[in-house]
Design a protein that fits this description.
5-stranded mixed β-sheet; alpha+beta; rod-shaped; 333 residues
Length: 333
């Protein structure tokens, strides 16, 4: 019994001593918590650091201030001491930036209370390190454009709508050019051709030489001037010559306007007429030898010119035709 009682007393004593030692250890090795209000700070920002001491006894004489340090690598950039509140919480504020905040990047908050230590981290965007760029803003994809409007044949696109085209007016009729009618002719509006002007016939004497003018292109041509001078100064100076010109004009002006118009419209025909009348005009130069007012001279030279032209334009072609006919006939026989 004595041994049993001694053992029980020993166990009770050890238990009491063990409880007292555990309480003292808890008082000197208290766990800590610490945090910052934000994970990232820029130059000039206010950093709020809060924490709590568990099982904190505000009446204990062994209490100490909480030491807070902020370090970047091996460089300490801030330090503070804070007295805990009665419930064990503590708080302090620091301003980021200054001459000792040289490097940006990750910073460590180290909190010491007696022998307990705790740490937390935050990022500092100031200093010489590159600033943390915000994520790029992606512009929303615009909606695809509406498909183009296609109008069917006969319609035009006007202000986004298909509008029927205005009918195309018929082309204006092309008016045929009016012919250039020569002296002694007028334009017939019904047939658009030149006809003889019967209301104002060419004068019996002193009229223009229509065929020669159309052939040589102008009334100032030497051939036309020669014909006019022979007519006015030589032939018309005698009675027989005047009578001849009266009959000649009636015949000449009945067809000469048509021939002159054809010459103006067809250059090839004009060249053929020129080749035909040039020998005749050359033969008329003989009339310049007649004395003005001499009936005999004018009549004699006139008959000579007529005979010469009959020979050139009638006898010579007839003789040539006769010779050719005989030659062909002899060949055939």
């Amino acid at each position: 019994m004595k041994v049993t009682g001694f053992l029980a007393f020993a166990i009770l004593s050890v238990s009491i001593l063990s409880y007292g030692m555990t309480g003292a250890s808890a008082d000197t090795h208290l766990p800590l918590t610490v945090k910052t209000d934000l994970p990232l700070y820029s130059d000039g920002s206010i950093i709020t650091i809060t924490g709590k001491i568990r099982n904190y006894d505000s009446n204990s004489t062994l209490n100490e201030p909480v030491t807070i340090q902020v370090v970047s690598g091996t460089n300490r950039v801030a330090i503070a001491q804070v007295t805990p509140n009665n419930d064990g919480t503590f708080q302090t504020t620091l301003k980021a930036g200054g001459p000792v905040w040289k490097a940006g990047g990750e910073h460590t908050v180290m909190v010491n209370y007696k022998t307990s230590k705790v740490e937390t981290m935050f990022d500092y965007a100031g200093g010489v390190s590159a600033p943390i760029e915000p994520p790029p803003i992606v512009a929303p994809t615009p909606p695809p454009p509406p498909p183009p409007i296609e109008c069917e044949s006969g319609y035009d696109l006007v202000n986004g709508e298909c509008v029927q085209q205005a009918p195309t007016p018929p082309p204006a009729p092309v008016k045929e050019p009016e012919p250039d009618c020569g002296p002694g002719t007028i334009l017939d509006p019904n047939t658009n051709t030149c006809i003889v002007d019967t209301k104002d016939p060419p004068p019996k004497t002193g009229g223009g030489c229509l065929i020669a003018t159309a052939t040589y292109g102008t009334e100032l041509a030497p051939q036309v001037q020669m014909l006019r001078e022979l007519r006015d100064n030589t032939v018309m100076s005698t009675g027989s010559g005047e009578s001849f010109m009266t009959v000649f004009n009636d015949v000449y002006y009945s067809f000469s306007p048509y021939v002159a118009d054809l010459e103006r419209e067809h250059p090839a025909f004009r060249e053929a007429v020129k080749a035909f009348i040039t020998p005749m005009i050359s033969s008329l130069a003989i009339m310049s030898l007649a004395e003005n007012g001499s009936e005999s001279h004018v009549l004699g030279l006139g008959i000579t010119v007529i005979a010469l032209n009959l020979g050139m334009y009638v006898a010579a072609p007839a003789l040539i035709g006769f010779k050719v006919h005989r030659h062909i006939k002899s060949k055939m026989s």
